[in-house]
């Protein structure tokens, strides 16, 4: 079974066409509250027009909160530091169900 990061890397590789990867991709960063942020470009991918229902989980918690949503052409995930894998999994569930 492939890991979450292997699956995200595979999704990224599938989008690469000699052009897309020069302007688009994904970013994982940290927040100062503390937390993590995941931004994944959807433009020029099969997900570009696929709706995504916002998902909030334990949002009022200071150490388990997570928010995943679509903002125009970007999947945005934010959450507590230990929710990084959950955020990526949420994206992959959506992406892999719309191949």
Q: Helix and strand string, N-terminal first?
A: HHEEEEEH
Which strand-content bin applies to the residues?
A: 25-35%
Give the helix proportion (percent range). 25-40%
Report on the biggest sheet: 5 strands, antiparallel
Count of separate structural domains: 1
> Pairing-aware structural class of the strands and helices?
alpha+beta
Strand neighbour order, sheet with most strands: 1-2-5-4-3
Mean pLDDT: 96
Please tell me how large the radius of gyration is.
13 Å
Shape label: globular
What is the tally of helical segments? 3
**CA-CA gap between termini:** 19 Å
Number of strands: 5
Unreliable runs: none
Set out the fold topology.
Blueprint: H1 4-15, H2 20-23, E1 26-31, E2 35-41, E3 55-57, E4 66-71, E5 74-79, H3 84-96
Antiparallel strand pairs: 1-2, 2-5, 3-4, 4-5
């Amino acid at each position: 079974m492939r890991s979450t990061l292997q699956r995200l890397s595979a999704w990224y590789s599938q989008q690469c066409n000699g052009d897309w990867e020069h302007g688009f991709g994904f970013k994982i960063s940290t927040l100062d509250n503390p937390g993590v942020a995941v931004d994944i470009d959807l433009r020029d991918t099969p997900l570009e027009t696929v709706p995504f229902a916002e998902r909030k989980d334990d949002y009022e918690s200071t150490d388990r909160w997570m928010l995943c949503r679509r903002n125009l052409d970007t999947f945005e995930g934010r959450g507590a530091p230990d929710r990084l894998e959950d955020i990526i999994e949420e994206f992959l569930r959506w992406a892999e169900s719309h191949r």
